[in-house]
Amino acid sequence: MSSEEVSPEVVVEALGVPVGIPVTGEAAARLRHQWSRSLTDRDPATVVQLDHLEIEHEIAHDYAVTSLVTMAALDATAGLRINLHAGAVADERGRVLAVIGPSGSGKTTAIGLLATRLGYLSDETVSLDESLLVHGHPKPLSVITDPDEPHLKKSLSPDDAGLLSPPAESHLHRIVLLHRGDDDAGLVPVDPAYAIAEVVAQTSSLLRLEDPILRLAETIDACGGVWSLRYREIGARLDDLVGLLDREPRPSPARRHHPGGPATEPVAGAWRRAAWVDAVEYDEEVVLMVDAEVRVLAGLGLLLWVALEVPQALDELVASTTAVLGEHPEAGALVADALALLAGDGLLLPPG
User: What is the pTM of this model?
Assistant: First the structure.
């Protein structure tokens, strides 16, 4: 911001980024109240543009402002941190519980209830640096107040909602994936490869990080694994979620990193790997990122992708996979079919 520019009346700290909101008068007072936990005297690093917002409805306007502030903070931190679509609360020791899920999974409701017992960090976005420090985003809660107009989400101040405040510094400690439905199994451990695949879908700008799949694997290990919460009513599961902070971490599984690279150089008559971004191999799966897509390969797919660290012909691949899985009268056809499927998914390249 140049010396001639006037700082906006409202500047909020979002994910550690000071973001200016250019509003005045009644709108400024209203937004300052809604963003009571985030107000800062710092000069804004970026200012959201509201000129294009032709929204007269006050509730819809304020919700749009919240979205713009969040996007500005995500843009400013892209490539620097892991940014998750998640809610987060922290206990007095600074141990953070992150609940991850898409829109409609119940994040805001879960955080609104959890934050009457633990400190409120965010109901929408969790931003992590390499030390797993959580950069807070205590934005207004987006609450549906009229069931007949679910698209109108009122912006409710965390103070008005009676949410507790977290300690000055907090670090990620446990991770939960939210699954609301008829299955009421509660907290269930998730295999790390499948946890990574589900978490990737709830991230922003992950591709801009170096070794993104490895970063997620390391984060999961540091948090003692990932749990899925399968629930019907979140209120009945609050004790389980809070108690997870004291639960023993699961041991970190052995893994091997396959740093991303270009497609393997072609060899006459041989199958080879297509270009990939990053991959982590566990005992029974490999989680593989190609472009922005993530695949989890197991069984024959895992064996073939790992074997193709160097290009190989079909007969070589049949021999190496049967050495592991045992002889099968249709081994050649099974391997050929699996190779064709992997090629169709853009993971392998066929001979020629």
Answer: 0.92
